[in-house]
Amino acid sequence: MALLNELAKKKEGLVSGHRLCPGCTHSVITRQVFAAADTDKYDIVVAAATGCFEVSSGLYPYTSWNVPWIHTAFENAASTISGVEAMYKVWKRKGKTNKDVRFIALASDGGTYDIGFQALSGAIERGHQFLYICNDNNAYQNTGNQRSSATPFGGSTTTSPNGKIKFGKEQPRKDIVSIIEGHHLPYVAQASPSNWRDLMNKVKKALDVNGPTYLNIIEPCTTGWGFPPHMAIDIAQLAVDTCVWPLYEVTNGKIVINYKPKKKLPVTEYLKPQKRFAHLFKKGNEYLIEEFQRQVDNHWEWLLKREECGIEYGTTKE
Amino acid sequence: MGKKVALTGNEAAAHAIRQINPDVIAAFPITPSTPIPQTVAQFIADGEMDTELVTVESEHSAMSACIGAAAAGGRVMTATSANGYALMWEMLYIASGMRLPIVMAVVARALSSPLNIHGDHSDIMGGRDTGWIQLISENSQEAYDNIIQAVKIAENKNVMTPALVAQDGFNTSHTIEIWELEEDKKVKEFIGEYQPLYPMLNTDEPVTHGAWAPPNWYFEHKMNQLRGLLDAKDVVEKVGKEFGDVFGRHYGLYETYKLDDAEYVIVAAGSVCGTTKDVIDTLRENGVKAGLLKIRLFRPFPYKELADTLQSAKAIAVLDRVSPAGAQGGPLFTEIRSALYDTQTRAPIVNYTYGLGGRDTQPRHINSVFETLKRIVETGKVEKQFDCLNLRGEWR
Q1: Do A79 and B71 touch (CB under 8 A)?
Q2: B363 touches chain A (CB under 8 A)
Q3: Domain A4-309 falls in which CATH fold?
């Protein structure tokens, strides 16, 4: 990987002037993505789903995008990029371009886990060349923090609020990475902007695959999660160090955990600084934190066992 | 020279698409338009065209991929029907709002519920305000001719608006008719090369497509879009004439059949016009001055021109192949009636819903409409402003 001062000189795909909240990590992640992309070798074209990032960066008559960018709707970043990529194949075949172009679809959890899931599944199955990045902020943040299937157990949102008789979201998160894995695509990974080298390595690897790839990236949301704007990267780091957000990658079905905390922190370290989990610390709710910890431990153990097992696709010998 | 072929309406659409050879097609199967992508897929498999076919997982994704492909820069087409068209709904507005000249073959079909796979105009009439140009075809020949013309209309620099070409489910799509298939070369010459204005794939000049517009800009966008749609009217006329000059079949905004001196007039669109023409021939032989105004361009609606053709009529019946759904009448009725308000005539005008869900409309039903028009003129009374053709029992 290039040195930091070299990376700082790279052409930015996303430029300043966007209207994201102070402390939002959408722009941080995207700058890491562009820093990772080998833009001397290829150009990047982006399709974005409706969401915080889209409304903050593509407001007529302005744009924050220094690369070709398209937004059409909420649930279809994957099908929109499918069309763009299909046209690219035609341009290549007909000699209308000699450029090497790589395609990125950007969405958050609402546009990925929920309303955009069908389009994503279809696009991966068809094998388009694109990197799908889900900036997972655990809820529909653009419309004001409504629950999604990515909202963690116990998380209070405006449609799964903590109340006198309810404690927030009653279900665990959807394990989207495993679901995407089920498409048997060449590369799928989970990353965090706190561990930027790891994130960049994953972006670079994914963009070099001639086919669909998927990255699930934690995108701490200062307003929705309720933490001060300067803390977003700290929150992401806590998610990683508590194993709430394991950093791992799956290459042709083989899983590698990229980061194992020397000391796995209790989930309370992650939950405590966030208002959305404040009610879990009230007297009588201890069982909810225990349940949260149990879910995190189960998933982490499962990942460790899978890694230890070391199996991958395509290893059967004739 | 073209050659006479005996093929279905779906095959007519598929051959037009083969000759146009668009860069990208994204499509999803749905009855009765399924044979279009199917036939096109076979043409591609046999090397007769080299379109990139994206076999998406839904019609919503079909239109989304079409939009992505068109914005990327190239000619893009698709086909659908009914519920598929309905599933595209959100994206239809987005395609027209983004000014992408996508051309879509729609094989018009009833919408659920109850589930029904047969022909009517519920789909295209429901989508009449999505900002698309709408051309309605009477038969296979027109379906073929209209698709070819639609490419040129949609891509006109003053228009830059997506266009759909409708034909009637089963009545046209699955009926073998004799029609003229033109030479590939001549069709390709007629439509010419498409030069996209702001292709995304020109990465040297990055463009943002689909930015959102707050209250201080949205309105201007929508009115610019309307200008493009309205400008399509003149382009439809121009392209229809050019098409006639090349292929011998001239097209206007509408078609009149024995309308000049007609006293009893039916206004209709689609395959029912064929039946109506036959009935008119018989009536004329018996000295009844019957005539037809056939709608070709429904969006933009050429209200002035249509109203002018109806001035000799003593009574008018508008046939809608869709339920009025709580309006004063079907969409064609309300628009024709509104257009006439600015003209001299105060001829009585009645509305029929016919053919829903593939219900047969036979000469005797059309004949009954003319009988009613005669009775209205004779008595000076309109008993029913709205009625149904071939409905079980009487509509009250």
Answers
A1: no
A2: no
A3: Rossmann fold (3.40.50)
Place of tokens 């070391």: A310
If you ran DSSP here, which 8-state letter would residue A154 be given? T
Q: Which CATH class is domain B3-247?
A: alpha beta
Q: What is the pTM of this model?
A: 0.98
> Do B350 and B376 touch, CB atoms closer than 8 A?
yes
Whether A59 sits inside 8 A of B212 (CB atoms) is yes
Which residue of A58, A80, A90 is in closest CB contact with B68? A80
Closest alpha carbon to A218 in A14, A29, A27 = A29
Number of Cβ within a 10 Å radius of residue A100: 11
Place of tokens 């004779």: B378
Cα distances (angstroms) measured from residue A314 to each of A127, A191, A255? 18, 25, 14
Residue extents of the structural domains in chain B? 3-247, 254-388
Q: Has residue A2 got a pLDDT over 90?
A: no
Do the domains B254-388 and B3-247 match in fold? yes
The tens digit of pLDDT for each residue in B13-66 reads 999 999 999 999 999 999 999 999 999 999 999 999 999 999 999 999 999 999
Q: CB under 8 Å to B48, separation ≥6 — which residues?
A: B18
Q: Residue A165 and residue B162: Cα distance in Å, rounded? A: 52
Cα R_g (chain B), whole angstroms: 21
**Contacts (Cβ under 8 Å, ≥6 apart) of B247:** B2, B145, B180, B182, B186, B190
State how beta strands B52-55 and B3-7 pair: unpaired
CA gap B48, B21 in Å, rounded: 9
Q: Which range (A1-10, A53-62, A121-130, B120-129) has the least confidence?
A: A1-10
Q: Give B323 to chain A, closest Cα distance, Å.
A: 30
Measured CA angle at B60 (ends A18, A94), to 5 deg: 80
Q: For the domain made up of B254-388, give the CATH fold.
A: Rossmann fold (3.40.50)
Structure tokens at A118: 């069908």
Q: CA A26 to CA B161: how far, in whole Å?
A: 34
Domain range list for chain A: 4-309
Tell me the C-alpha distance between A84 and B229, whole Å.
25
Q: Do A80 and B74 touch (CB under 8 A)?
A: no
Q: B113, B80, B225, B73: which is closest to B158 by C-alpha?
A: B225
Predicted pLDDT at A9? 86
Strands A43-48 and A69-71: parallel
Separation of alpha carbons B224 and B244, rounded Å: 30
d(CA B148, CA B13) in angstroms, rounded, equals: 9
Task: Note the ipTM here.
Answer: 0.97
Tally Cβ neighbours within 10 Å of residue B308. 13
